[in-house]
Design brief:
This protein has two domains: about 5-175 and about 335-350, Glycogen Phosphorylase B (Rossmann fold, 3-Layer(aba) Sandwich); about 190-335, Rossmann fold. Helix content is about 40%, strand content about 15%. The mean pLDDT is about 95. The protein starts with a strand and ends with a helix. The protein contains 14 helices and 13 strands.
Length: about 350
């Protein structure tokens, strides 16, 4: 049994419907480790799943003086709230974390768990979920030798971080393939994810319409302006937005689709939506960016050049004819949450020794 302090997002709760792939992955990992008999204490935003026994990160405003608030260098309120929350957590872990935990796993995107790792008497593991950011690179470089053990969610992400993290171990995100079960397929396309510019939902709409195939979109409207200006005007009888669905709703959506469109406009570090679609037996058709080519094989997915909507549209009919059994098989072999939990458990035990 390993005692794990799992640090999550302070901005979004770890609960359904999830704000994004990071929150979904954290939820799944916490559940799986707990089910295996490990002691997991999740530090997360208010409103997180009570079944996880999460301890709320103290997301609150610091009691700043009027002079401090008037300073021209004062950052935004949200930035200060997150900074205050992670600062308080890391100070608590520095004080008595070694008595309560065998390992601290930082699954957040914040810099303080890395910057303050030297103050802890318990090993710190950090998962790199995004391309390099200046705040994290600064935290890594604060000491000549950073004491943090790093993992990356894909070969692509590990390579992107290589200049500052030469030895990130690749532990790919995973999904519960018992829950994400195969569906019968259908004649529509599905798109799921955060409705933000970098996920490219408007490009999926254009490709689906060009191919003459109906499309259903699901996900949180994380950027209201983008949704209202770029997505909503394109909706119609053939393209429907079905809302921000929980996991059961997504299983239904993906399982009854002929193919899933994945249209990143950035270098996707992993692509949990790809794994979810494959587990539902649904082939994927998307843009070749980031780690998508690591997950997909020609038997279960087809990729067009980044941003090439017409090329994507031409691939859609072919993708819808791919073998659903092969898609499911790829998910079981490559995208399993048990596989990810095995790797993390082995790493926890190694660093704890």
């Amino acid at each position: 049994m390993v005692r794990v302090a799992l640090i999550a997002s302070a901005r979004f709760p770890i609960s359904e419907p999830f704000a994004g792939g990071l929150e979904a992955h954290t939820w799944g990992l916490a559940h799986t480790l707990t089910r295996r008999g490990h002691q997991v204490e999740l530090f997360a935003a208010p409103g997180s799943d009570p079944a996880l026994g999460a301890r709320e990160l103290p997301v609150r405003r610091a009691a700043l003086s009027s002079a401090a608030r008037a300073d021209v260098s004062m950052p935004g309120a949200v930035w200060m709230e997150e900074h205050h929350a992670y600062l308080g957590l890391m100070l608590d872990l520095a004080e008595d974390g070694a008595n309560r935990f065998d390992v601290v796993h930082n699954n957040s995107l914040h810099y303080l768990p890395i910057a303050m790792a030297p103050a802890l008497r318990v090993p710190v593991v950090t998962t790199l979920h995004t391309p390099p950011t200046p705040w994290l690179e600064s935290a890594i470089q604060a000491r000549d030798v950073c004491p943090v053990v790093f993992t990356a969610v894909s070969d692509f992400t590990a390579s992107a971080w290589r200049s500052s993290v030469p030895r990130a171990r690749v532990v790919r995100n995973g999904i519960d393939t018992d829950f994400w079960r195969p569906g019968p397929g259908g004649h529509d396309l599905a798109w799921s994810g955060r409705l933000v510019p970098e996920k490219g939902a408007h490009l999926a709409i254009r490709a689906a319409r060009s191919a003459g195939v109906p499309l259903r979109l699901a996900g949180p409207v994380s950027d209201r302006r983008y949704f209202e200006e770029e997505v909503e005007p394109l909706l119609g009888e053939d393209v429907r937005y079905v809302g921000h669905l929980n996991r059961s709703g997504l299983v239904e959506l993906l399982g009854t689709a002929g193919a899933a469109l994945v249209t990143p406009r950035w270098d996707e570090p992993y692509g949990l939506v790809v794994a979810e679609a494959l587990a539902c037996g649904t082939p994927v058709c998307g843009f070749d960016r980031g780690a998508l080519a690591e997950i997909l094989t020609p038997d279960c997915g087809l990729l067009a050049s980044p941003g090439d909507v017409e090329a994507l549209a031409e691939l859609i009919p072919r993708a819808m004819k791919l073998d659903r059994t092969e898609a499911r098989r790829r998910a079981e072999r490559f995208c399993s949450l048990d596989r990810a939990a095995d790797a993390y458990t082995a790493l926890y035990e190694e660093v704890a020794r």
